[in-house]
Design a protein that fits this description.
Two copies of one chain form a homodimer. Helix content of chain A is 59%, strand content 9%. The first copy, chain A, is mostly helical and 138 residues long. The first copy, chain A, has a three-stranded antiparallel beta sheet. In chain A, a hairpin with a 7-residue loop joins β2 (67-71) and β3. In chain A, α6 (91-104) crosses α7 (109-120) and α7 (109-120) crosses α8 (122-134). The radius of gyration of chain A is 15 Å and the shape is globular. The two termini of chain A are 30 Å apart. The structure holds a DNA duplex (30 and 30 nucleotides).
Chain lengths: 138, 138
DNA sequence: GTATTAACTTGCATATTGCAAGTGCTTTTA
DNA sequence: TAAAAGCACTTGCAATATGCAAGTTAATAC
């Protein structure tokens, strides 16, 4: 999964080369909802990612500047992960995935509530959330 | 890849369970650009999908009603694949992926031209393309 | 100073992918 | 009309990736 073998020049293909697997976008999702996560936080997510897979995905995402590490304010033993601008820019993709899924799956109420906001003013929602995620308070 | 093992109720996770791999969205992409494709058409795409992988992905996408098979008008030996409404509804996801990729990769000129149209009027573009893909002319 | 927590790493069994070579129907061609 | 070619897959097998459990290492808590 590490190897940088670009399959074609197609933007979809290039994107999938980076985060087109079953786990990467879940890491991005966690960071969008929680803003900052530790390694342990990711492990707590409902899907149950294995520790080695998590480590390899975090590395790929970091190498590709979608996420970045920063020091935890409380402890040197902890690491905080955060989305970069490039990662935050995946927000529209993430939102459209949620909207699609809402139409074809039964989804949790809290997520439904969020999507209600999205549908009221998508551009406004994205702008506000981007601003939230962007804050440089490290 | 066939097994229906839902990892969680998260809409993102559920979506990735269906098409969260390196190939499925490329099949969807081909169908969005070409409208209808044969098995051989998919094989011709730049990324070079293996025949067995293609067969397994087509099956999963069909089982999940994202694509459907229809008879080829010219020959009984050929099969046409087409997006269902559920598949067409992935258009916003596909567009956002392209827009993200345009920002962070070098992408082909023809795709850039398409995205120029998208940026002029995203909703209009989606509506028009949806209509194109929806035609029931089989 | 010992125990615990946090972030990984390692080993190994299992599952998925990728490649090459079939198979079994059509359809075309000589 | 019989042989060749096209088309949509299957199959076998080696290579790679995933998933699970059990380390390891460093930092903090007790």
């Amino acid at each position: 999964m590490n190897k940088t073998k670009k399959r074609s020049d197609c933007p979809v293909s290039c994107s999938l080369d980076l985060w087109g697997d079953k786990w990467s976008l879940l890491i991005v999702r966690d960071l969008m909802f929680a803003k900052e996560c530790t390694y342990g936080d990711f492990l707590k997510s409902a899907e149950g990612i294995a520790t080695n897979i998590l480590a390899s995905r975090l590395l790929v995402l970091e190498e590709n500047k979608i996420i970045e590490k920063l020091d935890h304010p409380d402890s040197k033993a902890k690491v905080l992960y955060r989305l970069t601008r490039k990662g935050i820019d995946l927000l529209p993709v993430m939102i459209e995935i949620n909207l699609w899924a809402e139409k074809y799956f039964t989804i949790p109420d809290d997520r439904k509530a969020m999507l209600k906001e999205v549908k009221k003013d998508k551009a406004g929602f994205i702008k506000a959330m981007t601003k939230e995620l962007e804050r440089q308070d490290n």
